[in-house]
Specification:
702 residues; Ubiquitin-like (UB roll); Creatine Kinase, Chain A, domain 2; Four Helix Bundle (Hemerythrin (Met), subunit A); alpha+beta
C-alpha cells in the first residue's frame, strides 16, 4: 500500500492549520493567545470554535463527540454524546455549543479518587484543554470527535493525570523565565518541557492469548517455564522485522500519522516478540496525550490483525520486560534548547548552572522521582539486570563529568574533552568525529547529549506522573537559585560560587558505572542514596512533609490531592495483586492440577498395561517420572492453599496502606512459591496434555 505521509499526517486533527482556515481571524488570534501565552480562555469565542469543530468533525463522518480525559486509572476515559438534537417535528439538527465544548460532567465517584469523592458525592467536571488539539477517532463502527479535557471534583481537586501536569508545566515556565532573564535573555517568552517517550511492547498471537487466563485477567503470565531459547543470542534486538509484525507496524503508523503523532522509529527490542516505537519529541502536555493514544492504538490495531499488544512491564519471566524511556528537555518558544551544552560546554555558564541545578533537584528529591515510576508491573522489572535499578542516580558522561570535576577541584574549567575521530580501517567507509561520551544504559536518569532520559518509567504507565515530578523539582531548584541570584551584587561571582557549591553537595548523585551490579547497591548505600525496591515502599515519598511543601509551593498538588493520590496507588497495588493471586489460584486449581493428575493417571495406566502385557519389562522411567511429578504436585497444592489463605486475610484489611503492605509481604511472596513447582511440572507433563500455550508457543510461533 502506497502511503503519502504529507497528505495524511494530521488529517484527523483539529490543528493550527485547520483552525486558521476555518475560524474567523479575530477568534483564531484570541484562541492562539490562550494556547501560546497561557492567557485565560475567552468564553465569548467558545460558541464559534465549537460550531467550526462540529462542522469539521461531521465532514469527517463523526456523529458523536466525547470529552477525552485521563483519570487516575492511568488509561483514558470517554462518554460519547451525539451531535443530534430533536427539533420537535420528528426531525433533528446537529448542534454543539460552546458550553458543551468547555464543560462536561462525569460520575466522579466511579473513578479512583482516594477518598476525595464518596459514592453519594458523584459530581465531577471535565473542562476543555485548548492547548492539546481535538482529534477524530475512527473505528469500524464509529467515528468520534475527541476533545482533550482535564477532570476535577465538584470541590475543585484534580482527579486526573492532566491537571497536575499542566500545573507543573506552568510552574517550570515561570521559574525558567526568571532564570533566563538573569542571563540577559529578554526575547524568549515561554519555556516548556519537551518530551519524547520511547514505547516498548510485546506482540503475540490472539488465539494463543485467549487460551491464557493469566494474560486475559492480568496482562502478564503467572506461570510459564522458559523455552530452550530466550534472548541469550542477542539476535532479536534490531533484527529483521518479520512480515506479520511489519504489517502491524505499517497499519499502526498510518493511524498515528493521521492523528498527528510523529511516530519516527520502530525496531525489534531485546526479547523475542518485543518491539519499540519512538515518536519525535513534542511539548510535554501534547506528548503525554500522544503517548496515551499510542498505547490505545497499539492495542486496537493489534486486535484488528489477530494479534494482542501486551503493555505490561513484565509479561514473561526470564526475558526482558518493557519500559518507557522518558526523554526530557527544556525548550523556549523561540527554539532554544536550554540543555544544549554548545560547542564549548566548559564556558557555557548558563548551561552548567542549569545542569547542576537539575543534579540538585534529582538528589534532593530522588525518592519522589522513584515514586513517580512506581507501578505493580515495575516491581518485576527494576533492578533485574534488564532495567535501571530502583536507586536514582545521574549519568552525565565523561565530558561533563570532567568539567564538573575541574570546577570542583580547582574552581575553574579550562578545557573539555572532545570526541575523537572514529576510523574503521576500511577505505570505503567514511571516518567521522564520534560523540565525546559513551552511553550508559544502566543509568535511570542519563544525560544524552541535549536532554535527560528517565529510563525507569513502566511501559503501561502514563508519562504524566514522572514529568509532573521532574518539572516541579526542577522548578523548585530554579526558584531557589533565582531567589539568591536576583539579590547578588556580583552576578558572575555568585553564579560561579553556586555551581561549585552545588557540585560539592550533590556530586554523590552522579554515577557512571554499572547500575546493574551488586557493588553499586553497596556504594549507593554508602553515599546515602535511597533504594526503594518496590512500589509499596516508594508511595510514602509522595506524602512526606517536604514533598507536600514542594508541590503546594508551586501550585501543582494540594496536601489533600497528594494524600488522595497515595491512597489510589495503595489501592491499585492491592487490587492488581489480588486479581493476580485469584487468577493464579483459579489456573492452578482448575487447569494445572487436573491436567497433571490426568497425565499421572495415564502414566499409571501405561505402567500397569506394560507390566501386564510384558512382565519384567523395565518401567523405571515412567515410575521416576511419576515420582518427579509427585514431588512437585504436592508442594504446588500446599502453596496454592497457602495463597488462598493469605489472599483472604489481605482482602479483609481495611486500611489501604496496611493492606498494600500485606499484599506485598505475604501474597506476592507466596505467589512465587506457587509458580516454582508449577513451572517444574510443565517440563514434566507432555505438551499436548498441558492446559495452555507455552512460552515457546507465544514468543516464537507467530
Amino acid at each position: 500500500m502506497k502511503i503519502n505521509v504529507s497528505e495524511i499526517f494530521g488529517s484527523n486533527v483539529f490543528n493550527d492549520g485547520v483552525m486558521r482556515a476555518r475560524l474567523p481571524k479575530a477568534v483564531y488570534k484570541d484562541l492562539k493567545k490562550t494556547i501560546e501565552d497561557g492567557r485565560e480562555l475567552n468564553p465569548d469565542i467558545a460558541d464559534v470554535v465549537a460550531n467550526e469543530m462540529k462542522e469539521w468533525a461531521i465532514e469527517k463522518g463523526a456523529t458523536h463527540y466525547t470529552h477525552w480525559f485521563q483519570p487516575m486509572t492511568g488509561i483514558t476515559a470517554e462518554k460519547h454524546d451525539a451531535f443530534m438534537y430533536p427539533t420537535g417535528d420528528g426531525k433533528a439538527l446537529n448542534e454543539f455549543s460552546g458550553k458543551e465544548l468547555i464543560k462536561g460532567e462525569s460520575d466522579a465517584s466511579s473513578f479512583p479518587s482516594g477518598g476525595l469523592r464518596a459514592t453519594f458525592e458523584a459530581r465531577g467536571y471535565t473542562t476543555w484543554d485548548c492547548t492539546s488539539p481535538a482529534f477524530i477517532k475512527e473505528s469500524p463502527n464509529a467515528i468520534t470527535l475527541c476533545i482533550p479535557t482535564a477532570f476535577c471534583s465538584y470541590t475543585g481537586e484534580a482527579l486526573d493525570k492532566k491537571t497536575p501536569l499542566l500545573r507543573s508545566i506552568q510552574a517550570l515556565d515561570m521559574q525558567a523565565i526568571r532564570f533566563l532573564r538573569l542571563f540577559g535573555n529578554t526575547t524568549s517568552k515561554k519555556v516548556y518541557p519537551s518530551v519524547g517517550a520511547e514505547q516498548e511492547y510485546f506482540l503475540i498471537d490472539k488465539e494463543k492469548y485467549n487460551k491464557r487466563k493469566d494474560l486475559t485477567f492480568t496482562g502478564r503470565t503467572l506461570f510459564g517455564a522458559m523455552p530452550p531459547k530466550g534472548q541469550e543470542l542477542d539476535d532479536h534486538y534490531f533484527g529483521t522485522i518479520h512480515d506479520r509484525v511489519a504489517k502491524y507496524m505499517e497499519a499502526l503508523n498510518l493511524e498515528l500519522w493521521k492523528l498527528g503523532i510523529a511516530a519516527k522509529t520502530q525496531h525489534n527490542e531485546a526479547a523475542p516478540a518485543q518491539h519499540e516505537l519512538a515518536p519525535i519529541h513534542d511539548k510535554n502536555n501534547i506528548a503525554a496525550d500522544h503517548n496515551q493514544i499510542i498505547m490505545e492504538m497499539m492495542k486496537t490495531v493489534a486486535d484488528r490483525q489477530g494479534l494482542v499488544c501486551l503493555l505490561h512491564e513484565k509479561p514473561f519471566a526470564g526475558i526482558n520486560g518493557s519500559g518507557k524511556h522518558d526523554n526530557w528537555s527544556m525548550v523556549t518558544d523561540d527554539g532554544i534548547n536550554l540543555l544544549n551544552p554548545g560547542k564549548t560546554p566548559h564556558q557555557n555558564t548558563q548551561f552548567l548552572l542549569l545542569l547542576t541545578l537539575i543534579m540538585k533537584a534529582v538528589d534532593e528529591h530522588a525518592g519522589l522521582l522513584r515514586a513517580s515510576a512506581a507501578c505493580p508491573g515495575n516491581d518485576h522489572r527494576l533492578g533485574a539486570a534488564e532495567a535501571p535499578p530502583a536507586i536514582i542516580s545521574i549519568f552525565l558522561g565523561e565530558q561533563l563529568e570532567d568539567i564538573l570535576e575541574q570546577l570542583d577541584t580547582t574552581g575553574e574549567a579550562t578545557h573539555f574533552i572532545k570526541g575523537s575521530r572514529l576510523e574503521s580501517g576500511v577505505d570505503t567507509l567514511p571516518n567521522f568525529r564520534k560523540d565525546a561520551t559513551d552511553r550508559n544504559r544502566t543509568s535511570p536518569f542519563a544525560f544524552t547529549g541535549n536532554k535527560f532520559e528517565f529510563r525507569m518509567v513502566g511501559s503501561s504507565q502514563s508519562i504524566s506522573d514522572p514529568n509532573v515530578v521532574i518539572n516541579t523539582i526542577v522548578a523548585e531548584a530554579l526558584c531557589q537559585a533565582c531567589d539568591e541570584l536576583e539579590k547578588a551584587e556580583n552576578f558572575d561571582l555568585a553564579v560561579h560560587d553556586m555551581i561549585k557549591d552545588i557540585i560539592a553537595k550533590h556530586k554523590r548523585i552522579v554515577f557512571s558505572g554499572n547500575g546493574y551490579s551488586d557493588e553499586w547497591v553497596e556504594e549507593a548505600k554508602r553515599r546515602g542514596l535511597p533504594n526503594l525496591k518496590n512500589m509499596v515502599s516508594a508511595i510514602p515519598e509522595m506524602t512526606r512533609p517536604e514533598s507536600v511543601a514542594l508541590f503546594e509551593k508551586h501550585g501543582v498538588y494540594t496536601e489533600t490531592e497528594l494524600n488522595s493520590k497515595a491512597e489510589v496507588m495503595y489501592e491499585r497495588y492491592s487490587k492488581i495483586t489480588n486479581i493476580e493471586a485469584l487468577a493464579m489460584i483459579d489456573m492452578a486449581k482448575k487447569q494445572i492440577v487436573p491436567a497433571v493428575i490426568k497425565y499421572q493417571t495415564s502414566l499409571a495406566q501405561s505402567i500397569n498395561q506394560i507390566e501386564a502385557a510384558c512382565p519384567g519389562m523395565d518401567t523405571s522411567v515412567q515410575k521416576r517420572l511419576m515420582n518427579d511429578i509427585a514431588a512437585n504436585l504436592a508442594p504446588l497444592y500446599e502453596a496454592m492453599k497457602k495463597l488462598e489463605a493469605e489472599e483472604k486475610i489481605a482482602s479483609k484489611i481495611e486500611n489501604a496502606k496496611e493492606q498494600a503492605n500485606y499484599f506485598y509481604d505475604h501474597v506476592f511472596q507466596t505467589m512465587a512459591e506457587v509458580r516454582k513447582p508449577a513451572d517444574a511440572l510443565e517440563m514434566l507433563v507432555a505438551k499436548e496434555d498441558w492446559p495452555f500455550p507455552s512460552y515457546g508457543d507465544m514468543l516464537f510461533d507467530n
